[in-house]
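Journal club side-thread
Mid-discussion, someone asked how the predicted structure for our own chain would compare to the paper's figures. Pasting it here so we can look after the session.
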Amino acid sequence: MAVNVAVDLAPRSPRELRLRNPIIAASGTFGYGTEYAGLTDVQSLGAIVCKGTTITPRRGNSLPRIVETPAGMLNAIGLQNYGVERVAREFGPLWATWQVPVLVNLVGDSVAEFRAMAELLDETPGIAGLELNISCPNVDRGGMLFGIDCAAAAEVTAAVRAATTLPVMVKLTPNVTDIVAIARAVADAGADCLSLINTLLGMAIDVRRRRPVLGNVTGGLSGPAVKPIALRMVYQVAAAVDVPVVGIGGISSLTDALEFLMAGATAVQVGTANYVQPDLMATMVRELPEWLAGQGYHDIHQIIGIAQPEAVRAARFPNLATPAAD
C-alpha cells in the first residue's frame, strides 16, 4: 500500500514549503548539510535548517563550549557562523541543485537586522524558507529576549513577513511562562509555521575546579532530557494556533517522532541525536511509511493530532482517522 508522508508547512504562503516527508534536520546540529554528505543520505530528508546565521560573521564563545549531561548536552557555541552574505553567496547556489529544501535559521540583535537578512535572502536561489530564532536579545529593548515578550516576538515576525515572500517559520523558546501566548502572537503576525522548542537554559559546574564548566557559564540544554517538556509545549501550541507546528526536543527514534506527530506536530526536527547516530534521520524516513502501513494508515495526516482531545481534533485536524484503542 502506498503511503503519503508529504506535509505542507506553509499552506497560506504563495511560495510553497511542501516536504516529501516530515523529518527535518534541526539548526545547529547539521551544519550546512555538506558536513553529513558522507555519513547519511542527506537528499532523502524532508528538509534541512542550516546553522544559525547572523548579519555579520561571528567567532562564537570561548572554550569549552559543549558538555555532556545526563540524557543530554549543554552547548554554548555562541552562534559561530560565516554571516548571511557568505551563506547566500556560497551555499545558496549549491542548495539550489539539491532535492532537499534548505531553510536558513536567522539570528538578529534587532528587528532591523532580521529585516535586512530576510530581504537579502528573499530572492537568493536555493533558499526554501527562513526560520527565525527569537531566543536572542533585542538590543533595542535593553537586551530582553524577543521570544519572551508577545509584542517583541510579533514585531520581528511582522517585519520579516513584510520583507520577504519566503515561507517564515518562527522558533519559540521554552524559557517563558506561557508559550501559547507567544505562539498566538507570532502566528497572528504572519508566521507560516512555528517550530518548538529551542534549548532550555542550563549550566554545569566542575566540582574539582570549583568553576562552571562552560566558558560562557550557561548554555542550552538539549537531548532526550528535554523531550517531555517539548512534547507538552507542542501539544499545547498545536491546539491553540491555526498554522503548522514543527516539534523539536530530544527526538532520537521514530517512536519519539510519532509522539510529536500525534501531539499535533506536522513535522519534526532532529537535533542532538545526529551527533550520536548520523544516519538516524534517513532511517526514520524509511521506517515512517512502513509503520503507517503496518497500522493500516495510508496518509500521515491520519495521525497528526490524534492524541488531542476530541474538540481539538475536530477543529484543528480534520483529516484524522478514528483514534485506535491501542
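Post-session note: The mean pLDDT is 94.
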